[in-house]
Design brief:
alpha/beta, Rossmann fold, about 15% strand
Amino acid sequence: MVMASFILSAFGCGNKSSKQNDNTAANDGQKVLVAYFSATGTTEAVAKSIAEATGGDFFEIEPVKEYSSADLNWNDKKSRSTLEMNDKKSRPEISSKVEDIAKYDVVFLGYPIWWYTAPRIINTFLEQYDFSGKRIVLFATSGGSGFENSITDLQPSAPNATIEEGEILNGNPSVQKVKEWTDKILSTK
């Protein structure tokens, strides 16, 4: 089931644009960033829903070198993704940066679950910024596994942030479901 989830969320890439909103009133005065990595577009679709529900800014974590189908072949022990996931120090390079991370209070951080955790590019993203005092709420797509090791694996990359397990949002969650979840998150500080 985990491997099926990897296959479903591993092939293809999404839109390369970012969206900026200024809707802090809907967030109880909190400035929100929705940052995500999506190898297939699945996680991107969920990220767009979260950005819409929160009025948050939208940022795609894009690798400098895009993942090909061969790179994402979890059956190949020498594929790029397998090698990265087997090397806890691997940090795939990211092609762009968030302009002013300091202005955000809450970061919704999304990714497909790979090998029971976040892809190493998420560690790269976290290590590029100072997240001191910020809330990082995880969301993910997966065919069957949960967050398992995500918080443990990500916390050292953002040691002064509060990383929270959020939701696995598979399929096409309704706007209402996403809005209820994000409202609940943003109402607890």
